[in-house]
């Protein structure tokens, strides 16, 4: 049994993370760290405003870090040094150096550190990985992902996403990190990165659009384009090979099209559940962890070079 301490009670935590922990049969919610203790009342657990005290008093084995990006590294490192396993929200950290420090703390503590890139658990993404290995499109040479929406984050609980000190950047860190991570998952080690970003429409102190070009060691070239200034929502993911192409658009939908086939593979109704389930299995039963510190660091490496 894994007893969880959750740090941060925001939109993702209440809609997905805590429900996933409560639904996972090998998990129990031990407590919550929040600036507003009343938020824990709905779950019947104790709340702390101080992480150090919570780590000492909650009896937790694992910590879910769901705070703004600027807190991922310090809170994960403190939790690991306290002997807890950690599953951290994406992106792993504000920069590659912080990510390296997190991985080092995990290695020194002997505890598991995972990052919640939950799209690695999508059935159709893993089916795409299988099909690529089987040669369904020949040799992959190009991939493209877009995530376009209208978001200004001028106020409300998620306003921190447009604060560079707290978030690191705009859509590049927010939705871009997921797509960069998937490119790494499918194509391996990135070798070279170029990027462009600007603020052209939204009145925010971070970029409202970013385009990243990644060259992989195996020769694949990938483009990730993310925008907060599009009133037309796009969630595209396309892979081209020497013998055909594979269409996963919309990425969050169930469809995958490839030469000679079309499959419908829906994600879990709670997108975080398979990620939490995989982490629990890794800690308790030694199952392979799908999103490790080592793999998540590569996304921070790409992001930093794109800047």
Helical content (DSSP H or I, runs of 4+): 25-40%
For the secondary structure, the number of strands is 15
Radius of gyration of CA atoms, rounded to a whole number: 19 Å
Structural class: alpha/beta
Note the overall shape: globular
Order of helices and strands: EHEEHEHEHEHEHHHEEEEEEEEHH
Q: Classify the fold: give the CATH topology of the largest domain.
A: Dihydrodipicolinate Reductase, domain 2
Domain module tally: 2
Report the sheet-strand fraction.
Answer: 25-35%
Mean pLDDT, to the nearest integer, reads: 97
CATH architecture descriptor name of the largest domain: 2-Layer Sandwich
Number of helices: 10
CATH class of the largest domain: Alpha Beta
Flag low-confidence runs: none
Distance between the termini: 42 Å
Major sheet characteristics? 7 strands, mixed
CATH superfamily of the largest domain: Dihydrodipicolinate Reductase, domain 2
Fold and architecture overview:
- The protein is α/β, with parallel strands linked by helices and 307 residues long.
- The protein has 2 domains: 2-118, Rossmann fold (3-Layer(aba) Sandwich); 123-266, Dihydrodipicolinate Reductase, domain 2 (2-Layer Sandwich), CATH 3.30.360.
- It is built from 10 helices and 15 strands.
- It has helices spanning 11-23, 51-57, 69-81, 96-109, 123-134, 164-167, 171-174, 176-187, 273-285, 293-306, and strands at 2-7, 27-33, 46-48, 62-65, 85-88, 113-115, 140-150, 190-198, 209-216, 221-227, 229-234, 237-241, 244-247, 255-258, 261-264.
- Strands 7, 8, 9, 10, 11, 12 and 13 form a 7-stranded mixed beta sheet that branches.
- Strand 1, helix 1 and strand 2 form a beta-alpha-beta unit.
- The model has no long low-confidence stretch (mean pLDDT 97).
């Amino acid at each position: 049994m894994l007893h969880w301490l959750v740090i941060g009670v925001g939109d993702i935590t209440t809609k997905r993370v805590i429900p996933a922990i409560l639904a996972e049969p090998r998990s129990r919610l031990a407590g919550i760290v929040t600036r507003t203790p009343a938020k824990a009342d709905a779950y019947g657990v104790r709340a702390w405003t101080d992480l150090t005290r919570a780590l000492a008093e909650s009896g937790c084995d694992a910590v879910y870090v769901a705070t703004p990006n600027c807190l991922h590294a310090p809170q994960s490192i403190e939790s690991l040094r306290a002997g807890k396993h950690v599953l951290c929200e994406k992106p792993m950290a504000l920069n590659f150096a912080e990510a390296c420090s997190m991985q080092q703390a995990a290695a020194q503590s002997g505890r598991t550190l995972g990052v919640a890139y939950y799209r690695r658990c999508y059935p159709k993404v893993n089916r795409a990985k299988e099909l690529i290995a089987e040669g369904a499109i020949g040799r992959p040479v190009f991939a493209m992902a877009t995530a376009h929406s209208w978001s200004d984050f001028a106020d409300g609980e998620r306003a921190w996403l447009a604060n560079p000190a707290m978030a690191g950047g705009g859509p590049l860190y927010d939705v871009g990190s997921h797509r960069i991570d998937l490119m790494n998952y499918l194509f391996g080690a990135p070798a070279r990165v170029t990027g462009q970003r600007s603020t052209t429409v939204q009145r925010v102190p971070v970029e409202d659009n970013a385009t990243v070009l990644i060259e992989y060691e195996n020769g694949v070239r990938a483009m990730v384009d993310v925008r907060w200034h599009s009133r037309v929502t796009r969630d595209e993911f396309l892979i081209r090979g020497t013998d055909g192409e594979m269409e996963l658009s919309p990425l969050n939908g169930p469809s995958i099209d490839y030469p000679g086939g079309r499959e419908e593979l829906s994600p879990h109704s709670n997108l975080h559940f398979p990620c939490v389930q995989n982490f629990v299995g890794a800690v308790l039963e030694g199952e392979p962890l799908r999103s490790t510190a080592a793999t998540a660091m590569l996304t921070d490496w790409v992001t930093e070079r794109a800047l």
